[in-house]
């Protein structure tokens, strides 16, 4: 490429490759053509062509979660940028490092409400409202600096999505290739060590604990080895739903995602815990019954973000610092000082067995699904799921997860991201199989992305839990609306015919006994495939906590 032809679009493409980006997602459009032209001509980055911007943003989010690297998504400006918002919102909830690069109208027209193509006055403010930051390139000369700042912000804990607008005239501006690209390193600050005084307090409390527990969240995903050191000292563990697999969930001293919400035996056990160490978790309302779930009175909270202190639950001690560095320091200083009660481990394991059995019993005809599915999948398979009734019950809580980046779900509790998240996860999986469990209602929101999976030959099994409606909503309506089930019944696709149109192998499961063999077939099939689980044939899914104790469900249980 001659110096006379190098433009800002080329700079964007080369910048991404220089910082280690190998996969991007998005849609080509009139206001991003120069940037995508730069990517295409270099052929150094795989560009996954989503069917809509929302799906592309969800793909970038899941890619970031599974890979542990930057997820990158391109959109057009205006309506295209607006359509990324649901995915950016989810990335923000999940703390995913996502770089959203969008075009913009010609610089002289921006924010002037002149009716130019794709112009949305106030777009930057819209993106800033759902991102960690929203930046705009205002000249060709500052493009590299703005891009560097954006990627650095996204990857600096607490991580999150960052948007960059690059006006179309700036994208086409011919520039001299910046020599800085040859030695570019993002200036990501080092992990902050724990605050010394707070660490001292935490050590004193934990050294006296006889029945200590560890609550692990998303911020501890890179600290599995350090968490295991604390378990070796006698701690038990539990995870937020976005912190699953930090401790492999077949370890006898972890509850995984069965953290008490919907598990009264776990809540009862917490009464005997004399110190809980919370690391990298917000103790989200969705997981703590809107912060009403009783937790042990002595709570030590570790987070890289000082704003987390007292945001949900009060802290006896708050330690600002990196999860791995803090847990390593605690393990070093607690070695030889812990006096964990001799019967604590046995008590915990017995409680775990009872709690899992009790929860499983409440699943009705789906009681065997977690076991059958787990047995049919490789240990390293990726577990992606949408907000559907099966996930809101057993998928989040008792399906075992073995690695810190093996599970992806909508932390925002939105329906619809499951399929595109499955694609993004599969793109980051390095050949490992991904299964995405979605509901028929959620699947409908992004079902066009099925063709993205086909085009990319994604190693993805799409498992549709088909109850012909919004099952979660109906449980809520039964609990809170006296059983007035308005607007929750859906006419869905014939999923077998849909799979045939898309060129996918597909199967239909009409009984629990068919699940394991069918999933095994799908896993053994190269490329994407589809399984429809016919819930109307298997039976109604029982209402789950807390709704099972409310409204018509409580009345039915009493009868």
Description of the molecule:
- By secondary structure, the protein is an alpha/beta fold.
- It has 3 domains: 3-183, Rossmann fold (3-Layer(aba) Sandwich); 196-356, 3-Layer(aba) Sandwich (Rossmann fold), CATH 3.40.50.1220; 364-558, Rossmann fold (3-Layer(aba) Sandwich).
- The chain has helices at 8-18, 33-42, 53-67, 79-83, 85-94, 123-130, 143-155, 168-171, 196-207, 224-232, 264-270, 323-334, 344-361, 369-376, 389-397, 418-428, 440-445, 450-456, 471-480, 495-502, 515-524, 535-538, 551-558, and strands at residues 23-26, 46-49, 71-75, 98-104, 133-136, 162-167, 212-216, 236-239, 275-279, 299-303, 317-320, 382-385, 407-408, 434-439, 460-466, 506-509, 529-534.
- A 6-stranded parallel β-sheet has the order 2-1-3-4-6-5, with helices on both faces. Strands 13-12-14-15-17-16 form a 6-stranded parallel β-sheet, sandwiched between helices. It has a 5-stranded parallel β-sheet with strand order 8-7-9-10-11, covered by helices on one side.
- Helix 7 (143-155) links the parallel strand 5 (133-136) and strand 6 (162-167).
- The longest helix is centred in the middle third of the chain and has 18 residues, at 344-361.
- It is globular and about 75 Å long.
- The termini are far apart.
